[in-house]
Amino acid sequence: MAIDILQISKNALEAQKTNPNVINASIGMFFDEERKIGGMPSVSKALRELPDMSVMPYPAVDGGKEFKDNVIRWTFGKYEKQIREEMFVDACATPGGSGAIASTFSVYSKPNDYIFVSNIRWQYDRFADRAHLKIYEHNMFKDNGFDLDSFDASLNKLCDIQKQIIVIVNDPCHNPTGYTLSHYEFTRIIDILNKYEQNDIIFLYDVAYLEYTSEEDNRIKMLELLKLKEHVMTILAFSGSKTFGVYGLRLGAAIGLTKSKKHIDQFRPRFVNEARGSWSATPTISIELLNHFSKTDNYKLFSKDLNHIKDIVAKRSELFISQANQLGLKTYPFKSGFYVIVLTDKPMEVYEKLSEDGIFVVPMENGIRIALCSISLKEIDGLSKKIQAYL
Ligand SMILES: Cc1ncc(COP(=O)(O)O)c(C=O)c1O
Question: In ligand 1, which atom is closest to the CA atom of 251?
Fold first, then answer.
């Protein structure tokens, strides 16, 4: 289903101009309870105050040493030291997490290859389409948890027909379901990747929503990556858009992690070449924004804003899920994050009827996606009932 989410959101914003009661639950951007973007004052202030030298010059194509060190430290948190001691790590700045995904496809696949993805997913198909890649799916859920058997069995079959495989896992706060893998499930995924030693596995670990999980330690699963064997090259896709709420700025990074010296030696030249030949360089202001918030005092301010936003998003999901449960609406297993899916076997019809009624959601394969990040508690209160009327 090729749906243009940005267009749906535009339509919603247009409709809101004449009818303030229109609800725009279509897009993965945080809006505060007053429908305003810029929920992190520390970020807005930093952007306004960055000096010319942090905005105007061309940056280093890979973001430069300071950025690379900072984004690696940011992503691995307190486990960075241990990870660096046991594995090779490198990074390249990209325009958003999207840039990390597109460049990984370009660097590690050739036309007509398959990529390995879950049957419920964000729009990786668009990146695949552009890179002339095909989709090989595994089933995502079984008994309210991740379907490890399908992941293993499907990967097994694909390993028989293709040597180098890009395997995508989007965790935590999976888009579009809001599911987060348990530690056990993540460990088992690592075990499964390790089994296919005859293959070259590119593990594209999409951590766009890393900051928004309700897990007590949102970096602890990173330590499991240390167990990956030499045939696995992990690329973490970091999204500054989601982390800092700066969606239009285009800040991201591809972080390479591996036990293989050969793989890490190839990482920088390949990603830099990819960048130079496509987007050229990531905006200097994006790179410098991450550098700014990597300084301890600035980080403290950001962290306060982030906790505030997380709190609001958690309250929104609690309200929505509790009302949906009361009415018996079915959702995929939800843990936390920006989105939830309400299941229906006629998503297109429900989407159309809801938009006629001034409620903009995104139709997906087996349901409609509600972006809880972008609607207020007031808008959520009673939303389940309105949706139920069209199911
Ligand atoms: C799962 C997932 N990965 C990656 C991205 C990429 O985001 P960006 O390119 O804005 O950093 C998104 C954005 O919606 C996403 O939902």
Answer: 11
Centre of ligand 1 to C-alpha 243, Å, is 10
Residues in the chain: 391
Kindly give the interhelix angle for 296-327 and 284-293, rounded to the nearest 10 degrees: 90
CA distance 202 to 158: 13
Name residues of the chain where pLDDT drops below 70.
1-2
Do 134 and 276 lie in one domain? The reply is: yes
How far, in Å, is the centroid of ligand 1 from the Cα of 197? 30
CA separation for the pair 105, 129 (Å, rounded)? 10
Beta-bridge partner residues of 116: 136, 167
Cα(212) to ligand 1 centroid in Å equals 13
Which of 3, 26, 122 for mutating ligand 1's site (highest number of atoms within 8 Å of CB)?
122
Question: How far is it, in rounded angstroms, from Cα 342 to Cα 369?
Answer: 7
Residue 344 CB–ligand 1 contact under 6 Å: no
CATH number, domain of 167, equals 3.40.640.10
Measured over the CA atoms of residue 83, residue 87, residue 88 and residue 89, the dihedral's sign is negative
H-helix or E-strand spanning residue 340: strand 339-343
Nearest atom in ligand 1 to 28's CA: 14
Domain of 335: which CATH number?
3.90.1150.10
The pLDDT tens digits for 271-328 are: 999 999 999 999 999 999 999 999 999 999 999 999 999 999 999 999 999 999 999 9
Ligand 1 contacts CB of residue 26 (under 6 A): no
Among 268, 294, 320, identify where a domain stops: 294
Q: Tell me what pLDDT residue 350 has.
A: 95
Distance CA 2, CA 124 (A): 11
SS3 178: coil
**By alpha-carbon position, which residue is closest to atom 2 of ligand 1?**
208
Ligand 1 lined by 28 (C-beta under 6 Å): yes
